[in-house]
Write a structure and sequence with these properties.
five-stranded antiparallel beta sheet, 10 strands, alpha+beta, about 270 residues
Length: about 270
């Protein structure tokens, strides 16, 4: 892009527009087609970069394009379980910007092993869905944060509980992870899955528990499964951990240790940036 002085000598010393002066004979800067075409091309390139087609009936397109190209300036974090009705901000509702949304389901809890089945499996992590969302014309929508699976208790041989699903309206969703095995075996819980986004993945299955091959009936000599996902809870015979990051699975508990329960799964989360 250039000042008008790049196109004519009839400009100020700084290359800017100048008025005419009849008393001195100074001629005004001419209205040059080349300069106006350059400005037009520059402005249209902004629309092209934002993925907007020029519309002669829409005088707000430049504002929309600048909003779409600007980095995210706002964030809303929903980490309390349950459903919240969210009023869509004007800049999103008017289509001037799009929202980048992350949805994570709740993690499953770890399983409680038994003497015969040894230590349980870790809880699976929740699913993950991420995507760029156009909320033009949307006044409000429901955002649901899934709870992590609760610890099943201290009784031997208990399967972990699954985490609940999280969602962003009906657009993006992520199921919760399954609980780790206890009654049905030592397998780690399967992770949840994401849906509806540009990226839809699972955050990781829970780890399997194991038996000591030399003493399969001795729970004190076995290893439990850690919870799946980033921040997955550590398994332990006496002090298993709950999931430590959104959607992480809980760690398994061991055998017949009295009063010890598996780690709970971590709650999910929904994050909106715009």
């Amino acid at each position: 892009m250039q000042k008008v002085g790049a196109y004519t000598e009839r400009a100020t010393a700084e290359g800017e527009w100048r008025p005419g002066n009849p008393s001195t004979g100074q001629l005004a800067t001419p209205m040059l087609a080349d300069w106006f075409n350059m400005v037009q091309r520059e402005l249209l390139q902004i629309l092209t970069d934002a993925g907007i087609s020029p519309d002669i009936n829409d005088d707000g397109q430049l504002s929309q394009a600048l909003g779409a190209l600007a980095p995210a300036q706002n964030i809303a974090v929903f980490d309390t379980t349950g459903t919240t009705n969210w009023t869509v901000p004007n800049v999103l509702r008017n289509g001037h910007r799009k929202a980048f949304v992350t949805v994570i389901g709740g993690g499953g809890s770890g399983g409680k092993g038994s003497v015969t089945l040894s230590m349980g499996g870790g809880g699976g992590a929740g699913g993950l869905s991420m995507g760029l969302v156009d909320l033009s014309g949307v006044d409000d929508l429901d955002i649901t944060v899934g709870a992590g699976g609760a610890s099943p208790g201290t009784t031997s041989g208990l399967n972990g509980n699954p985490g609940a699903s999280s969602s962003f309206g009906s657009i993006l969703s992520a199921t919760g992870g399954n609980g780790g095995g206890g009654t049905t075996g030592m397998g780690g819980g399967n992770a949840g899955v994401g849906a509806g986004g540009d990226i839809n993945i699972s955050l990781g299955d829970g780890h399997n528990g194991s038996q000591n091959p030399n003493s399969p009936n001795d729970a004190f000599l076995t290893t439990g499964g850690n919870g799946g996902g980033i921040g997955g809870g550590r398994s332990s015979r006496i002090s298993p951990r709950a999931g430590g990051a959104p959607g992480a699975g809980g760690g398994a508990a061991g055998g017949e240790e009295p009063g010890v329960q598996p780690g709970a799964g971590a709650d999910g989360i929904v994050i909106v940036r715009w």
